[in-house]
Write a structure and sequence with these properties.
Strand order of the largest sheet: 1-11-12-13-16-10-9-4
Radius of gyration: 27 Å
Number of strands: 18
Distance between the termini: 53 Å
Length: 419
Amino acid sequence: MIDLKLLRDDPEALRASQRARGEDPGAVDALLAADERRREAVGRADTLRAEQRQLGKKIGQARGDERTELLAYGKELAAQVKAAEVAQSEADEALTAAQRALPNLVIDGVPAGGEDDYAVLEHVGTPREFDFPVRDHVELLESLGGLDSERGAKVAGARFYFLTGIGAQLQLALLTMAMNKAIAAGFTMMIPPVLVKPEIMEGTGFLGAHAAEVYRLRDDDLYLVGTSEVPLAGYHSGEILDLSAGPKRYAGWSTCFRREAGSYGKDTRGIIRVHQFDKIEMFSYCPPDDAEAEHQRLLGWEREMLAAVDVPYRVIDTAAGDLGASAARKFDCEGWVPSQGRYRELSSTSNCTTFQARRLNVRYRDGDGRNQVVATLNGTLATTRWIVAILENHQRPDGSVTVPAQLRPFLGQDVLTPV
RNA sequence: GGAGGCUUCGCCUAGUCUGGUCUAUGGCGCCGCACUGCUAAUGCGGUUUGGGGUCACCCCCCAUCCCGGGUUCAAAUCCCGGAGCCUCCGCCA
């Protein structure tokens, strides 16, 4: 949700942001008009309510004819107040709707345009030259006895799978390593609910353009989360935080659920695009002035994690049109996938500035003792998909796989060999 | 699944039966001032949150007693619905 003060002070910045996202700048003017109408409606209702309050006091003291007269006027006034309140709540709803329709203001420097207009910021590591036929992650995992897609489909349908034996162990080792790093960096480990209420899902901005991605349990009016960002954002909803000791940082370990509607035919093989996977997600609450610096810190921890599994990657600055509604800027780390000869997203960190926090009403007390809306940020530390990059990049001619050195203590093996 | 209790401005709490000076009481905490070698103690004053007016301050207006409806000239208070927490019973990993 966009700050109304910012809207009034600098509507042109918002129009520019809309254009960069490829969306209608007219939505800004619609919001301005709705804001003005609401202010007028509130003013009228306030005046009438003040009059009614004064009248009420008089009636309380009046007796006889005077009282009868005042009561008659009171009835009339009550009708006017009611009408004014209806008008106010309509204007309120219209404003909220217009406000929710507008995505976050993108940060200066974010490339304009759509999915393919990202800016590559950096390449780290060099893709390995293979002098033998490269196996893809499905072949590798299956021969290691780590994946059963067929039975996944039998039990739950397409895009579901069993991680079996070493596959499951590998995921547990990877996520444990990621979580240990997060804890060492000062994050509080969290195992959150993966079912959340509508207002939490709505507050994080996932029920807008991406509503079709979200599983919904109609009988219970709950949603399955696609990332622990959702419960971690909801964790402090409605609260006033003490950030005097620095940002509040949480690392969520959760299963994530995505419908993958509209992705038929994409990545149908293996575990790249699935309905259910596990993820370690970093989440920060910090003062808005510190958000861009915090964003870089989150990116830094992602890079450490990628270095730890020794996978070549590049960092991209996602274009405005490819940002979620909540994000003001997003950096993706894309790992090299040898079988595809291209980079695929392994981690993603978004700066949501005050957009989510305003919807979820998360504030902090600043140095002057005033309550201000916080900024929220999130970033991926590891997911099931990382297994793809790890196995493919470290495969050997005989189909075995070298375990990255930092992962070995968690897995208890140096080399994975086909069964 | 069933029965009952509770929810008041940071925390605790009075007020709800019997609607109106409730513009919500008191304590704790916190802030300011006074007094006192310092601290403590004591005294006095202040202290919900959000929106709007105001260049800003002072101040003024509106809303806010878990949430949403209703009754009424008027609701913390009466009625209906819902949420959360707690207790007990039943059922079940």
